[in-house]
Design a protein that fits this description.
Layout: H1 7-33, H2 35-41, H3 48-64, H4 66-80, H5 82-100, H6 106-109, H7 112-140, H8 148-176, H9 179-184, H10 189-206, H11 212-220, H12 227-233, H13 235-270, H14 275-289, H15 291-303, H16 306-331, E1 338-346, E2 350-357, E3 362-368, E4 377-383, H17 386-407, H18 410-415, H19 423-439, H20 442-455, H21 467-483
Antiparallel strand pairs: 1-2, 2-3, 3-4
Helix pairs in contact: 1-5, 1-7, 1-8, 1-10, 2-3, 3-7, 3-19, 3-20, 4-5, 4-7, 4-19, 5-7, 5-10, 7-8, 7-19, 8-14, 8-15, 12-13, 13-14, 13-16, 13-17, 13-19, 13-20, 13-21, 14-17, 15-17, 16-17, 16-21
């Protein structure tokens, strides 16, 4: 059946699946992209560091429940079909995102604000847990044999495009509004706008047909009556679930979140880079790097999935420390020569010091007046020279390449490990444990490690947060090298 699927039909499938997945990732990412702003709205403002860590923990909570979403919606997908299942996940995700934009601040309703945000984040996580497996399975089951890597790699681009579009919407909102307006209410706009995109995606997905492989299995009566039991109660299949997790998905997860989320948090909180500048650097690198998902997906059809993914992990764990050291040094004002200094007196006994450096870097520091405290720094913002901005973009781009290597082939890799009747359930769990648990916890864990190292006055505190992704990627590389076969497991691909 799939051999007769024409290119026009596959592009319709890609378009319908990708549009919804892109919007769901957009919904999920705007929370992470606005985490610094959100920390001041939904959490107590008397301890900014604790508030930011609490926001990251709430962000991570959405990832922690993704495996439960994978089990619940994966089971539905294997019982009633791929199409209807990820229609539900789309509406659940969109509704939760819209409501986050409507929640009153901590100042208005107290601890009810972070509680409501947490509940909605959990709903987002459950929805996302069912989304990816459905979209990837749906596309793979339409793709001709021998081309699954290429066609499913288009789905892989949607997560990056989702982040990219979220950054564009945030930057446009900031550009249109004043800084005071954005801080007061403008940050809600990206959340509220998502409901319009969800509606458009719903209309597109409503007209989709069921995947040919699942439709055939349902017609022949060979669908699973208990997908959970057959996926995880069967020792033979469970072995592949565990191998998919520890030999591929968890390493892919930490590489993905290091390059796209930790790098953004690192530029803003460790390097103190101007927020808009950091978003522009990451957005540019993402835009340039996204076509490589397609390249490595296509290449995996030719040479196999295994070594492309594992090479991406190996390059990442070997080069993360020198990459992030180079990034830090580009904005490290302690090593730069001062050109001029200007200090202004602000309200509330605060001082604003603007420092210009000879290499074009500009630093703005707000501190307490020495008459009230020991000139304690409250906030520091660094704007680097255009040449350093290009260098930073290149360093982020290298990390995006690692992401495309590990993420481009993984949908086809996971689909080919499991038979049709339990594919949605079996592939969704290892993917979302790897990404939701190992990957989703990365920003919070790495920020915690960096903060502790800074308190302990470690001279290389800015590299401490990298130990987590390096160790996880190393373990995954070893397991994957030893136990994963480079060719699809056709015997298990029923």
């Amino acid at each position: 059946m799939k051999e007769n699927t024409n290119t026009k039909t596959i592009w319709k499938v890609i378009g319908a699946s990708s549009m919804g997945t892109l919007i769901e990732w957009y919904d999920f990412f705007i929370f992470g992209s606005l985490s610094i702003v959100i920390s001041t709205k939904f959490f107590p403002a008397d301890n900014p560091t604790a508030a930011f860590l609490s926001t990251l923990a709430t962000f991570a909570a959405g990832f922690v429940v993704r495996p439960f979403g994978a089990l619940f919606f994966g089971r539905l997908g294997d019982l009633i079909g791929r199409k209807y299942t990820f229609m539900v996940t789309l509406l659940l995700m969109g509704g939760a995102t819209f409501l986050i934009g409507c929640i009153p601040s901590y100042e208005s309703i107290g601890f009810l604000a972070p509680l409501l945000v947490l509940i909605l984040r959990l709903l987002q996580g459950l929805a996302l847990g069912g989304e990816y497996g459905g979209a990837a399975t749906y596309v793979a089951e339409h793709a001709p044999e021998g081309q699954r890597g290429y066609w499913t790699s288009w789905i892989q681009t949607t997560a990056t495009f989702g982040l990219f579009i979220s950054l564009v919407v945030i930057l446009l909102t900031k550009y249109i509004l004043t800084e005071e307006q954005f801080d007061a209410w403008g940050w809600r706009v990206p959340f509220i706008l998502s409901i319009l995109m969800v509606y458009v995606s719903y209309l597109i997905r409503k007209n989709m047909s069921e995947s040919p492989e699942f439709a055939k299995a349902k017609e022949e009566g060979t669908t699973s009556k208990n997908p959970l039991k057959e996926s995880f109660g069967n020792r033979y299949n469970l072995k592949f679930v565990l191998l998919a997790l520890f030999g591929a998905a968890m390493g892919q997860g930490v590489v993905w979140y290091t390059g796209q989320f930790y790098s953004m948090s690192y530029m803003k909180t460790v390097m103190h880079l101007n927020s808009d500048e950091a978003d522009m650097i990451l957005g540019t690198a993402l835009l340039i790097g996204t076509p490589f998902f397609i390249l490595f997906g296509w290449l995996s059809d030719k040479v196999g999935r295994k070594w492309i993914m594992l090479l991406g992990m190996l390059l990442a764990l070997c080069t993360y420390r020198p990459i992030y050291k180079a990034m830090y040094q580009l904005a490290d004002t302690s090593t730069k020569e001062v050109s001029s200094t200007k200090t202004l007196k602000l309200a509330d006994n605060k001082l604003q010091t603007i420092i210009q450096y000879t290499d074009g870097t500009r630093s703005q520091e707000i501190s307490h007046d020495q008459s009230t405290e020991q000139d304690r720094l409250i906030k520091k913002t660094v704007t680097v020279h255009v040449s350093n901005r290009i260098s930073l973009t290149a360093l982020i781009f290298i990390q995006i390449i690692y992401i495309t290597m590990v993420y481009g082939p993984i949908a086809a890799f996971l689909v080919e490990m499991f038979p049709v009747k339990i594919r949605y359930t079996s592939m969704s769990l290892p993917y979302h444990v790897g990404n939701g648990i190992f990957g989703g916890l990365l920003p919070a864990i790495s920020t915690y490690l960096t903060t502790n190292a800074q308190v302990a006055q470690d001279p290389e505190f800015y590299l401490a947060g990298l130990w987590y992704p390096i160790i996880i990627a190393a373990v995954c590389f070893i397991i994957g090298s030893l136990y994963i076969k480079n060719k699809p497991n056709h015997l298990n691909n029923g």
